[in-house]
């Protein structure tokens, strides 16, 4: 045979593949990352073929041993990847045949690269999802510890980034915890749809061999074989869902990042990010920049982009497999790397955050943060809420004119606006009075933060 085209499919070709086309269509440079899952899938496929009598036990043993050796070679960096062999699947199969001879050529019986690659990606994503779930839990653990420590720390809460009402820092951190709990659930849910097995679908229609798909699924710990062969080789919903869950997670991390960047600024000065999470400036000697949260904020862009890449990749694709699908891998791999990197950075950094309690408290004392408390006080004294709102508005205007916050005014000054105000008003105008009054489930009172932390600890234990 003089034909120099690919040995695994070259039979019907009359001229070699154009050199550029070979490189252009090859995926091995990036899909070699799937080697472990590819081997795992092949071992299970071979065992299944043996069980149903398509391969003999000694053929199976040779295949399993050969693949094991290839795995070791790859992990030692001794494996020679060849672009001419197109992708990870054919590289490994060719190496197997070189190693064990003709039996290697039997491995692909009843299988196609179409169900093979779909299986590999699912195995890969299942592994990575498990790592991501653990890392979300680690970040949440750090938040619980910090929230407990800062349960009584008062800071200004914001709406429109304007001082709104006092909140506890612990409560703010537990808001982050809630966001991450939803992210965790989304990945758990996505994992269910990742964990379905394409093998047996072969190219698109299934196979004529007496295969036992349940057995292969069991070996690979998939929950079930995919229900339709056409869908099995072409479905990439699970990858899109993974990127969607990742996008939401990253979006949450950008919100946390934004707050950390603001809080670390001289203008807020609410937290100190330890030096090891910051970098300096090559020109301005005084600078300490919050690079980690800034970079996480920036990295969201690529993950959102990958989500759209995959949605666009799948749009209008006719059944079943199309080569377009080879383009699913790079966005997916980069999403995995980015999510893991950002989570790691956050999980390492959060426990090291130092709250500047006095600065937070000082900030909460400014900006009339207890104005709503005064209105609620008036309501308790029988004033209608709308009238109370007006009275407090006038008091705030007076405070702005005279340069004092509500708690700094004398009783006589306050009574100019309403005669129902008495000496007990000063209790509700304190920051501690304000936060501890919001003592219901989901409220900002220190006692509620402690409840939320306890519930959070239970949640993590149940995972
Ligand atoms: N490298 C291909 C991919 O990533 C593997 C499947 C190729 N199948 C085919 N019939 N060309 O999708």
UniProtKB/TrEMBL annotation:
CDD domains: Argininosuccinate_lyase. Pathway: Amino-acid biosynthesis; L-arginine biosynthesis; L-arginine from L-ornithine and carbamoyl phosphate: step 3/3. Residues 368-435 form the Argininosuccinate lyase C-terminal domain. Its main location: cytoplasm. It is found in: Cytoplasm. GO terms for molecular function: argininosuccinate lyase activity. Residues 11-305 form the Fumarate lyase N-terminal domain. GO terms for biological process: L-arginine biosynthetic process via ornithine. Keywords: Amino-acid biosynthesis, Arginine biosynthesis, Cytoplasm, Lyase. It catalyses: 2-(N(omega)-L-arginino)succinate = fumarate + L-arginine. It holds the Pfam family Lyase_1. Its EC number is 4.3.2.1. GO terms for cellular component: cytosol. In the N-terminal section; belongs to the lyase 1 family. Argininosuccinate lyase subfamily. Belongs to the lyase 1 family. Argininosuccinate lyase subfamily. This is Argininosuccinate lyase. It comes from Nitrincola lacisaponensis. The gene is argH.
């Amino acid at each position: 045979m003089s034909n120099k085209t690919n040995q695994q499919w070259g039979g019907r070709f009359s001229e070699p593949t154009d050199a550029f086309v070979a490189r252009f269509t090859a995926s091995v440079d990036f899909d070699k990352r799937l080697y472990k899952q590819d081997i795992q899938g092949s071992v299970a496929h071979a065992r299944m073929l043996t069980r149903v009598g398509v391969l003999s036990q000694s053929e199976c043993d040779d295949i399993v041993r050969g693949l094991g050796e290839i795995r070791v070679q790859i992990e030692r960096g001794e494996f020679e990847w060849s672009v001419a062999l197109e992708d990870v699947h054919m590289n490994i199969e060719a190496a197997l045949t070189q190693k064990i001879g003709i039996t290697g050529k039997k491995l692909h019986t009843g299988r196609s690269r179409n169900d093979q690659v779909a299986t590999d990606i699912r195995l890969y994503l299942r592994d990575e999802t498990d790592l991501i779930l653990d890392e979300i839990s680690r970040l949440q653990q750090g938040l619980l510890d910090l929230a407990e420590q800062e349960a009584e720390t008062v800071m200004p809460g914001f709406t429109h980034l304007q001082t709104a009402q006092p909140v506890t820092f612990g409560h703010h951190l537990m808001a982050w915890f809630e966001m991450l709990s939803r992210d965790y659930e989304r990945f758990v849910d996505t994992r269910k749809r990742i964990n379905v097995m394409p093998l047996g679908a072969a190219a698109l229609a299934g196979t004529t061999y007496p295969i036992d798909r349940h057995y292969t699924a069991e070996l690979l710990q998939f929950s079930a074989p995919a229900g339709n062969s056409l869908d099995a080789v072409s479905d990439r919903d699970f990858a899109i869902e993974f990127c969607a869950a990742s996008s939401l997670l990253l979006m949450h991390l950008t919100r946390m990042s934004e707050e950390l960047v603001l809080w670390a600024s001289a203008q807020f000065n609410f937290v100190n990010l330890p030096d090891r999470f910051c970098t300096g400036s090559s020109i301005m000697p005084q600078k300490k920049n919050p690079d980690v949260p800034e970079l996480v904020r920036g990295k969201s862009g690529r993950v959102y982009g990958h989500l759209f890449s995959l949605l666009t990749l799948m749009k209008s694709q006719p059944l079943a497999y199309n080569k377009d699908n080879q383009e699913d891998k790079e966005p997916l791999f980069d999403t995995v790397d980015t999510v893991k990197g950002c989570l790691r950075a956050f999980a390492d950094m959060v426990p090291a955050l130092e709250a500047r309690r006095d600065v937070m408290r000082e900030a909460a004392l400014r900006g009339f943060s207890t104005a709503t408390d005064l209105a609620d006080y008036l309501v308790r004294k029988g004033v209608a809420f709308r009238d109370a709102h007006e009275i407090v508005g006038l008091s705030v205007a007076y405070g702005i004119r005279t340069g004092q916050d509500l708690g700094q005014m004398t009783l006589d000054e306050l009574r100019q606006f309403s005669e129902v105000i008495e000496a007990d008003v000063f209790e509700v105008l304190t920051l501690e009075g304000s936060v501890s009054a919001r003592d219901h489930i989901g409220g900002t009172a220190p006692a509620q933060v402690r409840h939320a932390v306890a519930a959070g600890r239970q949640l993590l234990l149940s995972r």
